[in-house]
Design goal:
Oligomer: single chain
Strand content: 15-25%
Number of strands: 12
Order of helices and strands: EHEHEHEHEHHEHHEEHHEHEHEE
CATH class of the largest domain: Alpha Beta
CATH superfamily of the largest domain: Nucleotide cyclase, GGDEF domain
Structural class: alpha/beta
CATH topology of the largest domain: Alpha-Beta Plaits
């Protein structure tokens, strides 16, 4: 869960930088003018504190904006104090916390955030529907198109159900600017080999590749998505790759997403394929996913190996899909 703090008060900003909470919260401190830009996309539940002490005309407009944002639950910092009727209006607008002091490091604690989350899970319908329940859908009755012998029975031009995996390196533009073209191509080739090594045991094959990433297909057997283990391996073995095999001048980061869907498989001319499932995985990987993380849709969670189901947290909805994110180890 991300924790955003927006303030133009130096004392508040300095104290916010001293907040000590666990790594499951990522603290992001910004000036108020950066609020809309920073919150343009909040792909997972976030708590936002905004300092309204110096906001006048824009106060109601800003609070109204926050109250309408998906995946976002906001608290108010108000060290100057406003009248009690306005405080009640804040809660009617959806606020989950109110702080009347500028020194945050002794106020915003792990326990306070835990209590806010418990309140959301118990009383806020928007939170309960989005983050507290795995959807009860009978996926076993859906019409999947199974390739009985895996890749051996797949014919170009026919429809099949695949696990579609998206993977892409972060910081592509910086790489293009800062690396020589030849050095970059050599480094990218080691990345592709690393990905391929972790696909093969689970029947995955690269289908489209841009150099910096692409789409991988795993034929679906109608029973279980072993491809999720591939995603785990790519995430967890990354540091070994960084140290032993990578030719990048720094440790890399990437995003992974997996979705189960039926598409028309073509061995060539893949650029001509029009598919809702392809659009879904591209949007999930490019728009929703955050650096260094692995995401799956609810259908993937249903068919994931039983031992891995508890290693995913719900992070909300995106384009009508419930999304789950792999829990990362704390080093």
């Amino acid at each position: 869960m991300d924790l955003y703090i927006f303030s133009d008060n130096n004392e508040t900003i300095q104290s916010a930088s001293k907040i000590k909470i666990s790594k499951k919260y990522e603290i992001k401190i910004h000036e108020i003018k950066e609020l809309r830009k920073s919150l343009r996309i909040t792909p997972e539940p976030s708590i936002v504190y905004i300092d309204i002490s110096d906001l006048d005309v824009d106060r109601k407009k800003t609070i109204n904006y926050l109250s309408k944002k998906d995946n976002l639950f906001f608290g108010i910092i108000d060290y100057k104090g406003i009248n009690i009727s306005e405080i009640s209006e804040l809660y009617f607008s959806g606020a989950v916390d109110y702080i009347d002091k500028p020194l945050l490091n002794n106020i915003i604690t792990e326990n306070r955030l835990k209590r806010i989350t418990e309140y959301l899970a118990k009383y806020r319908v928007d939170y309960i529907q989005e983050y507290s329940q795995i959807p009860a859908v009978n996926y076993n009755k859906k019409n999947y198109i199974i390739a009985e012998s895996g890749w051996n029975s797949i014919i170009s031009g026919n429809d099949y159900t695949f696990v579609i995996m998206y993977i892409e390196l972060d910081g592509i533009e910086d790489m293009k600017k800062n690396y020589g073209k030849k050095n970059l191509q050599i480094a990218l080739s080691t990345f592709r080999k690393y990905i391929e090594k972790n696909l093969e045991p689970f029947g995955g094959k690269i289908w489209m590749w841009s150099g910096f990433g692409g789409l991988i297909l795993f034929p679906f057997n109608g029973k279980e998505c072993q491809s999720i283990i591939s995603g785990f391996r790519i995430i967890l073995f990354k540091h070994i790759y960084d140290v032993e095999d990578s030719l990048f001048p720094h440790f890399i980061s990437f995003r992974i997403a997996q979705h189960l869907g039926t598409i028309t498989y073509k061995k060539n001319n893949t650029g001509n394929i029009i598919s809702e499932n392809l659009n879904s995985i591209f949007h999930l990987g490019r728009i929703f996913a955050k650096s260094g993380n692995f995401y799956i849709t609810e259908e993937m969670l249903h068919f994931s190996p039983k031992s891995l189901k508890t290693f995913f947290n719900s992070v909300g909805k995106f384009e009508n899909h419930s999304i789950f994110r792999m829990k990362l180890p704390v080093y």
